[in-house]
Each structure stands twice: as C-alpha cells, then as structure tokens.
C-alpha cells in the first residue's frame, strides 16, 4: 500500500511563497535529494538489521524523551564536537517569534536537549536524522520518502476524523481508532529512524581513518593515467 500510493521522488520545489522562511526551509530539505551519499540502510530494512535500537526507540519514545536525547548526543559526538554543538532542533527549524535556535540560551544545554526530547520526541528524532544527512551529505532513500509520507498522511487523516467527530459525535469512536492507528504507525517509523541512525553511526565509526586509494583502470590509447576512486559504502 505504501509503495503504490506515495511517490518515491522528492518534491521539485516548495509550495510556499518564494523567499518566505518556510520556502527557504523546504528548499533546504529538497536540496538534500542531490547529495552524493546514501544511508547504509533505508528505513524499511533498518529494523531487521538493528532490532534492539528499533524496539527501544519504539517503546520508550511515547513515555519519555530518552531515545531522542540519546541518539542526538551520539550523533553530535560522532559528527561534531559533542554537546558543544547542540542547539534546539539542530537548526532544522526556521526562526519564529521568540524561537531562535542557537540564540536563546540553548546552545550546549543538556537541559534544553531533555526538554526537546520530552516535548518533541518524534520530531526530535527527525531532526537528528536530518542533522546526519546534512553533515554527511546523505540523500534520502526513495523508500524513506514513501514511508514518511504514509505516516504523515495517517496523522492528517486522524486530524480530519477528529474534526468530523466534533460535528458528528457518533464518529468519536472511529476518530479514536484512526488516531491510535496513526500514532502506532508514527512510532513505528520513529523506531525505524532509531535503527537507521544507530547503523549509520556504527558503520561510520568503523570507517574512521579509511582513506581514498588509487585504483588502476584500463588505459585508453595514448595512455590515460590511473584515477583515484573511492569505494562506495
């Protein structure tokens, strides 16, 4: 169902007014589709390759922000300078009113990380994933687009059902059921993100110190020199 109903291609441009903060944010995300690298594992395969991180993230996210805080800290330690580089949402949200990531006393603050993990646990996982993508020039896997789009669609459907239930009280039970299903799907995707982040960090730790080597290639007439080639993960 996921693969049939949702496109695996990224949007070509933002639907927001050109030059607006939301359009700039959308274009920043859309631009990641052109990154040269890819995740070691997509969201669909990640749970089977890292079941423990997936299950822990899935089970603990609804009741506390521990998974969000843990994976953000791990990512900052792997790709940055640890908590010194922390800012709220890792700069993945645009400024809005008094919300100005990095300029409101949040930089390097463990307290702010805990608040972000507890108050925005699901979005916090997305911010960590996007931070890794931006830092490592990783493009999203086509399957990831479809899975995340499906999860977002279910949340929108749940919202529509609750609005309808306000008008027709008889729909309350149906709205609650759809909302429960949507939340389970969202938490499942969050668990997949935890597994994907875990695998990416683990594999990048193993590849630390790996250098680019020269690989001889067949020469053309006249003798073209060997070129430098990098093994793709």
Please tell me about this protein's structure.
- With 233 residues, the chain is mainly alpha-helical.
- It is 55% helix and 4% strand.
- The strands form 2 sheets. It has a two-stranded parallel sheet. A two-stranded antiparallel sheet has the order 3-4.
- Helix 5 (66-79) packs parallel to helix 9, helix 7 (121-135) packs parallel to helix 9 (172-206) and helix 8 packs antiparallel against helix 9.
- The longest helix is centred in the C-terminal third of the chain and has 35 residues, at 172-206.
- The radius of gyration is 21 Å and the shape is globular.
- The two termini are 30 Å apart.
- The model is unreliable at 211-233 (pLDDT under 50).
Quaternary:
single chain
Structural class based on helices, strands and sheet pairing = mainly alpha
Order of helices and strands: HHEHHHHHEHHEE
Helix content: 55-70%
Stretches where pLDDT falls below 50 for ≥5 residues?
Answer: 211-233
Task: Specify Rg, calculated over alpha carbons.
Answer: 21 Å
End-to-end gap: 30 Å
Quick one: how many beta strands? 4
What is the helix tally? 9
Spatially, the strands of the biggest sheet line up as: 1-2
Whole-number mean pLDDT: 84
Proportion of residues in β-strands: under 5%
Main sheet: strands, sense, barrel: 2 strands, parallel
Shape: globular
Supply the key terms.
two-stranded parallel ribbon; 9 helices; globular
Write the layout of secondary structure elements.
Blueprint: H1 2-5, H2 21-31, E1 37-38, H3 46-49, H4 51-60, H5 66-79, H6 110-119, H7 121-135, E2 138-139, H8 142-167, H9 172-206, E3 213-215, E4 227-229
Parallel strand pairs: 1-2
Antiparallel strand pairs: 3-4
Helix pairs in contact: 4-9, 5-6, 5-7, 5-9, 6-7, 7-9, 8-9
């Amino acid at each position: 169902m996921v693969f049939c109903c949702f496109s695996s291609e990224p949007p070509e441009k933002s639907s927001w007014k050109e030059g607006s903060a939301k359009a700039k944010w959308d274009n920043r995300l859309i631009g990641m589709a052109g990154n040269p690298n890819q995740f070691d594992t997509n969201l669909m395969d990640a749970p089977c390759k890292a079941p423990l991180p997936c299950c822990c993230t899935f089970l603990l996210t609804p009741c506390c922000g521990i998974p969000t805080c843990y994976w953000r800290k791990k990512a900052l330690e792997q790709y940055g300078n640890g908590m010194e580089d922390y800012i709220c949402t890792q700069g993945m949200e645009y400024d809005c009113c008094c919300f100005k990531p990095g300029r409101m006393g949040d930089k390097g603050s463990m307290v702010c990380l805990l608040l972000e993990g507890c108050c925005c646990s699901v979005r916090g996982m997305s911010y960590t994933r996007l931070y890794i993508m931006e830092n490592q020039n990783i493009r999203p896997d086509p399957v990831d687009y479809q899975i995340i789009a499906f999860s977002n669609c279910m949340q929108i459907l749940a919202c529509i059902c609750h609005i309808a239930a306000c008008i027709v009280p008889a729909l309350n039970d149906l709205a609650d059921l759809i909302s429960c299903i949507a939340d389970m799907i969202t938490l499942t995707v969050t668990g997949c993100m935890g597994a994907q982040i875990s695998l990416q960090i683990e594999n990048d730790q193993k590849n630390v110190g790996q250098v680019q080597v020269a690989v001889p290639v067949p020469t053309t007439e006249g003798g073209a020199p060997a070129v430098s080639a990098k093994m793709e993960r």
